[in-house]
């Protein structure tokens, strides 16, 4: 059984890697999916260990894909906020 | 031939002598550069103040759906008690703050954080200005 702390740490990592996607559509999609899934998990009562195990595997995939996404250039979309530096 | 070159060299030496006489090097320029207490003055020190961090944190918080007006947010504001967030919500905020300030909240720190002020303090402690971490030439 995973502790709340462990789940929140996993949640933060999902959000971190999701935010790193260069492509707007992927980025928003994974942020949305991560939030949705963790909300569902919060409501879920029962044994979460299988879900956590699966999430950890998916985190690895997410991490790899976000790194790959950073290797390519994607034009900014009109809906995207450009960072004011 | 050799004689000519020698003469040329000699005359050039004279020219520099004359030039030196006409334009004396200012004494101040000869002073060695003094470093003040090891402070590097080619890069500005961390210009991030507590007020800056708080203001930027509030603007990050504004991008979330808040139940209270952002003007009421201060250092003492607690995520769960005052902003009506749950644990998932405020961890979302933490990651947004990480991106804004280019810091990473340690797992044990993030689990302990309850208020906006604690975030601000952590950011101030762990923030490294871009100018110091990287040579401007390669940036």
UniProtKB/TrEMBL annotation, chain A:
It comes from Ogataea polymorpha. Coiled coil: none annotated. GO terms for cellular component: L-cysteine desulfurase complex; mitochondrion. This is Complex 1 LYR protein domain-containing protein. GO terms for biological process: iron-sulfur cluster assembly. Pfam families: Complex1_LYR. InterPro entries: Complex1_LYR_dom, Complex1_LYR_LYRM4, ISC_assembly_LYR. Belongs to the complex I LYR family. Residues 5-57 form the Complex 1 LYR protein domain.
From TrEMBL, chain B:
PROSITE patterns: CARRIER. Belongs to the acyl carrier protein (ACP) family. The keyword Mitochondrion applies. It comes from Ogataea polymorpha. The keyword Transit peptide applies. It comes from the Eukaryota. Carrier of the growing fatty acid chain in fatty acid biosynthesis. Signal peptide: none annotated. One of its GO terms (cellular component) is mitochondrion. GO terms for molecular function: acyl binding; acyl carrier activity. SUPFAM superfamilies: ACP-like. Keywords: Electron transport, Fatty acid biosynthesis, Fatty acid metabolism, Lipid biosynthesis, Lipid metabolism, Mitochondrion, Phosphopantetheine, Phosphoprotein, Transit peptide, Transport. It is found in: Mitochondrion. This is Acyl carrier protein. Residues 51-127 form the Carrier domain.
């Amino acid at each position: 059984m995973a502790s709340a702390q462990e789940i929140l740490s996993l949640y933060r990592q999902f959000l971190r890697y999701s935010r790193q996607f260069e492509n707007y559509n992927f980025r928003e999609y994974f942020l949305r999916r991560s939030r949705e899934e963790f909300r569902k998990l919060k409501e879920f009562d029962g044994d979460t260990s299988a879900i956590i195990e699966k999430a950890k595997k998916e985190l690895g995939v997410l991490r790899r894909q976000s790194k790959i996404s950073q290797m390519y250039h994607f034009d900014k979309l009109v809906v995207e906020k450009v960072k004011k530096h | 031939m050799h004689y000519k070159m020698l003469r040329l060299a000699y005359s050039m030496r004279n020219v520099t002598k004359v030039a030196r006489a006409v334009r004396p090097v200012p004494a101040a320029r000869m002073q060695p550069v003094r470093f003040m207490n090891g402070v590097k003055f080619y890069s500005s020190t961390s210009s991030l103040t507590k007020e800056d961090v708080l203001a930027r944190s509030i603007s990050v918080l504004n991008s979330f759906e808040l139940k209270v007006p952002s003007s009421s947010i201060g250092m003492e504001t607690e995520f769960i008690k005052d902003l009506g967030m749950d644990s998932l919500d405020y961890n979302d905020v933490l990651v947004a703050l990480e991106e804004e300030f280019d810091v990473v909240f340690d797992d044990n720190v993030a689990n302990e954080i309850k208020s906006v002020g604690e975030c601000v303090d952590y950011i101030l402690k762990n923030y490294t200005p871009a100018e110091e971490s990287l040579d401007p030439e390669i940036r």
